[in-house]
Specification:
- There is one protein chain.
- The protein is an alpha/beta fold.
- The chain contains 25 helices and 20 strands.
- Helix content is 42%, strand content 13%.
- Helix 1 runs antiparallel to helix 11, helix 3 crosses helix 10 and helix 6 packs parallel to helix 8.
- It is elongated.
Length: 658
């Protein structure tokens, strides 16, 4: 097997792709081509003709800027990525985007771009593999038995997220995770040692990883390291690959000149000559084609053997197979709302959510989740189930530690791997730590669920650092994210149901710390929360004189104010809007009906910034909102000071009415 020719072919394709686009990063693919050639031709278990094979190895290019590496590998391996797509690198409507995108390019396991997130996704994938193996493997058959391989660069190790996810991976003993670290000492600004001189070996060993160092251009050393990593079952493995960025380029190898810019036509020609490659652009030698074709046939046979074992496993384990099917489909029962607990007294929506979760866990065995060290506050612990940790992957409760961004990346990895529906929790104000991973989840259409509690200044004594003001509005700005802020326990159950049925993007439940009264649904309408907003109360018929919109904990005080206004003869409508995104997905007729388009007197009540509400209340609408930071004092006192009382809502409404 001529691995040198394979590696050089990858280098040629990568150079040509970047040069054709006149944009991209050729240096990293050229530097890691040897490692990739060894892994993909000798060790990676996958079937390009069935990219969704459940027991395939997962491969993550965390340093996604080197995307021509994975595109070259996918093309050579036989995935549906023709050479024409490599020639169309970074262009409109191509399958070869600047960074790998999940759901866009077949064979790409996760979207990578922001450095470090792919590594975090890899940790999540490795955890998911362990969890499925713990549930479904038997002594007779191991139907779940695959590795997670990640290539990362110095950038990943510099980003703080790597500390969070690699620490947890070591703690959990993820023996089937292998990370290849591209140590070339080059970044965009030059030699990384101007800012980064960590002893990476000691760092990873301190995390509890097996660490090896190899010449990243020596195929025998790479092979030996992979086999040693596979032999280590108690620790994740970290292979430091000492490489030269832009390997083979006579004038740019080892320099930052080839990191983020094309080599230039002249240098490409010189490099191809130095590597013994054809001058033809996007040339693939027939020997390389034949080698990958033979590997494809071998992998097809591996899957065929697995299919035979899987069929035998299903036959011998009928009940377990039914559970497997449920984990894979993650089907939500149509009658899930009937399973929700009843509430008859004041309770915080975070506490109501906690009780709801206990019932959901019984109905949805694939539902797993946890908190960033706040389970007792977020009310997210599943009481009847064990914890997930080293040698204990049959449980359902995650403990992420104080690692919000790591939690988000791991959640994405678990969800994209398949087999589980994942939720994660922290305080709403710490959504700023989650935001980068939430954004990537939204890009990938991943139905992860966030439980974000302590959703307003009602946090009280903890003060303004812990009191979200602008947070909900900023989350609503993010495309493909569904933000739900329920007004009471009943709406909280509806919010969970809506989140679980949302399979095309992340959902966020914003929940209170303080107790809320249970709204009397015999007196006040409870329409479907699935529509995002509905008329909760109207005192008269037809077009109202006053439209009052409220969310979350402010719905009750708005109702109280509306009742007082109605008693004075005003036709007033109160709209509960727990979810703007769901409402805006409704047809225009429903939106017009609920929003009473002819009504000119409009106001909104929400314990957060007024930003974004202009769309519903217009330039002349009134707000009872909070556009400044909070303060440290008991929550009830803050409500009075900040004007979040029925009396003040009444006063603002009367002033609006004139």
């Amino acid at each position: 097997m001529d691995l040198k020719l394979v590696a050089n072919t990858i280098r040629g394709l990568s150079m040509d792709g970047v040069q054709a686009a006149n944009s991209g990063h050729p240096g990293m693919p050229m530097g890691m081509a040897d490692v990739a050639a060894v892994l993909w031709t000798q060790y990676l278990k996958h079937n390009p003709e069935n990219p969704e094979w459940v027991d395939r190895d997962r491969f993550v290019l965390s340093c996604g800027h080197g995307s021509m590496l994975i595109y070259s590998l996918l093309h050579l391996s036989g995935y549906d990525l023709p050479l024409s797509e490599l020639k169309n690198f970074r262009q409109w409507d191509s399958k070869t985007a600047g960074h790998p995108e999940y759901g866009h390019t077949v064979g790409v396991e996760t979207t990578t771009g922001p450095l470090g997130q792919g590594a975090g996704n890899g940790v999540g994938m490795a955890i998911a593999e362990e969890m499925l193996a713990a549930r479904f493997n038997t002594e007779a058959k191991k139907i779940v038995d695959h590795y997670t391989y990640v290539i990362c660069s110095e950038g990943e190790l510099e980003e703080g997220i790597s500390n969070e996810v690699f620490s947890l991976a070591g703690n959990h003993g993820l023996g089937k995770m292998v990370v290849f670290y591209d140590e070339n000492f080059i970044s965009i600004e030059g030699d990384v040692r101007i800012t980064y001189t960590d002893d990476v070996v000691k760092r990873m060993e301190a995390y509890g990883w097996q660490v090896q160092t190899v010449d990243g251009h020596n195929h025998e050393e790479i092979q030996a390291a992979i086999e040693a990593a596979q032999a280590e079952t108690e620790k994740p493995s970290f292979i430091v690959c000492q490489t030269k960025i832009g390997f083979g380029s006579p004038n740019k190898e080892g320099t930052h000149d080839c990191h983020g810019a094309p080599l230039g036509e002249e240098e490409v020609a010189l490099t191809k000559k130095a590597l013994g490659l054809s001058e033809e652009k996007f040339f693939v030698p027939q020997d390389v084609r034949d080698l990958f074709a033979a590997r494809l046939e071998e992998m097809k046979q591996v899957e065929t053997t697995w299919n035979v074992d899987y069929a035998a496993w299903r036959s011998d384990n009928v009940a377990l197979a039914a559970q497997w099917d449920l984990h894979m489909s993650q089907e939500i029962p149509a009658d899930l709302m009937d399973k929700m607990p009843a509430f008859d007294g004041p309770i915080a929506t975070r506490s109501a959510s906690g009780k709801i979760l206990q019932e959901l866990a019984k109905e949805l065995p694939f539902l797993v989740g946890g908190s960033a060290d706040l389970a007792g506050s977020n009310m997210t612990h599943l009481n009847d189930y064990s914890d997930i940790g080293k040698d204990a992957f049959e449980g359902r409760n995650f403990h992420y530690g104080v690692r919000e961004i790591g939690m988000g990346a791991i959640m994405n990895g678990i969800q994209v791997h398949g087999g589980f529906r994942i939720y994660g929790a922290t305080f709403l104000v710490f959504a700023d730590y989650v935001r980068p991973t939430l954004r990537v989840a939204a890009l990938m259409n991943l139905p992860v669920i966030y439980v974000l509690t302590h959703d307003s200044f009602w946090v009280g004594e903890d003060g303004p650092t812990h009191q979200p003001i602008e947070t909900i509005s900023s989350l609503r700005m993010m495309p493909n994210v569904t933000v739900l802020r329920p007004s009471d326990p009943k709406e909280t159950g509806c919010a969970w149901n809506a989140a679980l049925k949302n399979t095309s993007g992340p959902s966020i439940l914003c929940l209170t710390r303080q107790n809320l009264e249970v709204i009397d649904r015999d007196k006040y309408n409870m329409d479907s929360l699935s529509k995002g907003a509905y008329t909760l109360f109207q005192s008269g018929e037809g077009t109202p004189d006053l439209l009052m919109i409220a969310t979350g904990s402010e719905v009750k005080i708005t109702l109280d104010a509306a009742e007082k206004i109605a008693a004075e003869g005003t036709n007033v409508r109160v709209v509960s809007m727990p979810c703007r995104e769901l409402f805006e997905a409704q047809d225009e007729g429903y939106q017009s009906e609920v929003m009473a388009d002819e009504c000119t007197k409009r106001m909104v009540v929400e314990a957060g910034t007024s930003y974004g509400w202009e769309k519903y209340i217009g330039r002349c609408g009134a707000t009872v909102c909070k556009d400044t930071f909070g303060a440290s004092a008991p929550g009830g006192l803050l409500a009075e000071k900040f004007g979040f009382t029925a009396d003040n809502v009444y006063s603002v409404a009367k002033n609006l009415l004139g």
